[in-house]
Amino acid sequence: MKTNKNNKNNMVNMKIIKNKLHSSFYFQGFADKTKYFVLRNADILKFAGTYLFFIGLFVFMYIIFQEHFSFLSSLTASVLSSILGLLGVSHTLDETILHLVGGISLKVIDECTGIYELFVYAGCVMAYPTSSRKKLAGVAFGIPAIFGINMVRLLSLAFVGLWFPSIFSYVHYYLWQVTLILLVVFVMLVWIEKIVKR
């Protein structure tokens, strides 16, 4: 009886040891693969981590000082109104709302100012491995470029709302969202080619 119990206990202990060894080998293999992945992709992971840090910082600062950025909506609406006036488009401006005669009304909110696209671009620039001087030059280059692109977007939306109001939502929410991402990447590539690599 005791021998059977001892054998059973030994078998249980052997299974526990095997399970522990299997677990430790599995964990060691996982740790080795993770270490290899990190070492192989160190530059990409460093860029991604730094980018996320700056995006978080920019968004945090924006939330805290949001009232100080409220002028951007009014400024964007005023510039858009002036350009539409120069192009002969009849409209009225009510603070941040443009009423197009014969078309729809456009309300300029935070998302319409290009500030979020600028955060994305600036985060990429700050995370890119280059000198601080070139990063500052990149931000200085990107601010007017992205706000200019955004103004073209708003102008096109105004004309779509005036001439083709039925497809306004599609152009606004789908076409221009994808196009803006591509244009931000394009501005980033121009900065790399013209400033970083010079």
Overview of the structural elements:
The relative contact order is 0.09. The chain is elongated. It is mostly helical. Helix 4 runs parallel beside helix 6 (168-196). Helices cover 77% and strands 6% of the residues. The chain has six helices and three strands. The N and C termini lie far apart (85 Å). The longest helix is centred in the first third of the chain and has 39 residues, at 2-40. It has a three-stranded antiparallel sheet. It has two domains: 1-40; 43-196, no CATH class.
Brief rundown of the structure:
This protein has 198 residues and is mainly alpha-helical. It has helices at 2-40, 42-64, 71-86, 115-127, 132-163, 168-196; strands spanning 91-94, 97-100, 105-107.
Query: What percent of residues are in strands?
Result: 5-15%
What would the principal axes of the Cα set say about the shape?
Answer: elongated
Instruction: State the domain count.
Output: 2
Largest sheet: 3 strands, antiparallel
Class per helix and strand makeup: mainly alpha
Based on CA atoms alone, the radius of gyration comes out at 28 Å
Q: Please work out how many helical segments DSSP would assign.
A: 6
User: Looking across the biggest beta sheet, what order are the strands in?
Assistant: 1-2-3
Low-confidence regions: none
Helix content: over 70%
